[in-house]
Amino acid sequence: MAKDEPSTRDRILNALQRSLVEEGSAGVTLERVAAEAGVSKGGLLYHFKSKSDLYDGLARRFREEEEATIARARKEGVVDTFLRVSEVADIESAAGLWALLTAMRGKDQLSAAAQADMLFIFDGWKDALHAEIEDPVTAEIVRLVGDGLFLSALSGAPLPTRETLEALRERLNRLAGEE
Fold it and tell me: At a CB cut-off of 8 Å and minimum separation 6, what does 146 contact?
């Protein structure tokens, strides 16, 4: 396998994510995900024993990506990084994340482990912001603005203009003492 090629496990999770985007959780079947990933159903079941395991794997991948982003933010500036990633540039990833978040409350409720991984996206940033910003009220202001941007981007709600977003980041960085 070439370095750029995703592993079979990642191809399966990518296929799950695309299926969630295109069909929602109701359209996700093991057969569809296997076909989309270019593997047999047996190959899929080798990596993931059930539909629930698939969701667990995707939630874990989102968490691991977020943990890496938070670690990078602790070096580069938590407030600015948090606000930038809250704008969600990758639409397919955002749509997959949105589908998993809605599945937390739906018929295909996520396992406790997957729910914890999904909630980490919010809790991990909250902890990083509170560790970085001395004033807890300012930390919560930054968190709530970022969460609002994130949920607006995920749901397709309108976001402020690029200029307003820049001004917002500058003001919150200044308020948090990161400039």
Answer: 82, 83, 86, 125
Q: What is the 3-state secondary structure (H, E, C) of 67-119?
A: HHHHHHHHHHCHHHHHHHHCCCCCHHHHHHHHHHHHHCCCCCCCCHHHHHHHH
The pLDDT-based confidence of 159 (bands split at 50, 70, 90) is confident
Structural domains of the chain ordered from first start = 8-176 (1.10.357.10)
Residue 174 corresponds to which tokens in the numbers above?
């200044």
CA atoms within 13 A on the CB side of 138: 14
Q: How confident is the model at residue 78 (pLDDT cuts 50, 70, 90)?
A: very high
pTM: 0.84
Residues 6+ positions from 12 with CB-CB distance below 8 Å: 33, 34, 37, 39, 44, 47, 48, 54, 57
**pLDDT at res. 25:** 77
Phi, psi for residue 11 in degrees, rounded to 5 = -60, -40
